Amino acid sequence: MKDIVDVAISEIGYREQGNNRTKYGEYTGANGAAWCHSFVSWCAHEAGVSTSVVPKTASTTYGMQWFKKRGQFKYKGKYTPKRCDIVYFKTGRSHVGIVESVSGGQLHTIEGNTSDKVARRSYSLNNATITGYGTPKYTSTQNGSSGSGKKDSKKELQYLQKILSRHEAKAETIKADEAETGKIPAGNVMITVNNGKKKFTVPAEEGAKVVWERDSTPGKFTFTAKVEKGFSIGMGNEVLVTVDSKKFFYGFVFTKEGKKDGMASYIVYDQLRYLKNKETIVYKKKTADELIKILAKRFNLQYGTLADTGWRRSAIEDNTTLFDIIQNALDDTLITKGKTYVLYDKVGKLQLTDVAKMKVNTCLVDAETGQDYSYKTTIDSDVYNQIKLVYENKKKGTFDLYVTKDSKNIGKWGTLQYLDKIDNPDIGKLKSKALLKLYDKKKRTLTISGVIGNINVRGGSLVPVMLDLGDITVANYMLVDKVTHTFKNCEYTMDLVVSGGDFSE
After folding, report:
1. Structural domain that includes position 451
2. Among residues 61, 98, 139, 368, which is most buried (max CB within 10 A)?
């Protein structure tokens, strides 16, 4: 079984793609920066080492401090390094490598970003540039040693059992008279700008749009207006949008494009745009809502109602976008609690809501309220009906197979096989079942255009859909993955991309 050194050896000779651009930097989110520690972190990841054992970071300073805080750092001269240790060099040199071996008073390493490539290097153990060594607490399988790995097996078993036992919400059938079409809105849009000196309204030209998506994307408002003398709109100016006198969208100007005819187009984002910022954070036993409050305070963001997710998590997030920091916490909550939460900006305040509480019953989507639709069904990407896991039994000199399959779907689709190697036979059967549960599904998307507008619909909303699509019928609440609100030709309409629900054939 491979350890971090084996992975590093396989990378010898790899060269950066110019200007410090590497696959290692892509992994840590620091592509274009010095990549010696990104290489170490990437190798650890490829070897199956948790970020709680070797940090995911591009910073040598952070990496060394990370080990020091955990009492896992040994200074040069007081310690004989071992295979798979992480060697840190003097701060002035700002470099790091992986210990391959020690022999005859010589330290042999594999390093990234040495002469712009991955290469072996050798030093005297007394080399003046060496500061010391990070000594990760690897499991028996992560550092190449033999052992039962029972502790790790238990954790993975627990994880897989959660996947298998997790209640997947069935598509909720629309109850009689529960959903109805709301009143046809007038769609009167008013745009109020605050440029720091004064507030003023801007008459928008036809075609103003608000776009909301469910995952890791800021809300976006685009409009075109005539540039009037004395009414300057600049970067960062606050913009409030009302529809039929109700507050609808609040954000900040990020882009302005002027035109010869005196018109200008603007792009306005809500607060979620600032979640693209990257941050390093260490937190212990925090729920996702508590984590959002911490990040909001750091970046001066306003928040409103944040649902208590009920799951506490500890993590080290280094050089990671705020979106990903929060999403990692929400993903972990989904795995452990079986609940999906949606983060969004509600007219200037961050909100976190259980998706089950985001029904919009006044937005029935059917043949009367939608102008057109298209749907796509595919088994061409990440769909598998047979899972085969292989364990190399070195004691017997054989390969043990763990196979779980869906014979019914194989009969319909042919065999779509997922093949992978495992290091622990104890989890073989359970893991194959879990993977089949995750991947043995057709992927379907439904796009509906020209739906009567409703200001309550956003990414993450549940809307009732009743459509006869010819060979498929839909009569369920469906999750809005993306909504585009359009105000044009004195009409207010929406284009929806929805998922979930039962597509019954």
Report:
1. 357-378+443-499
2. 98
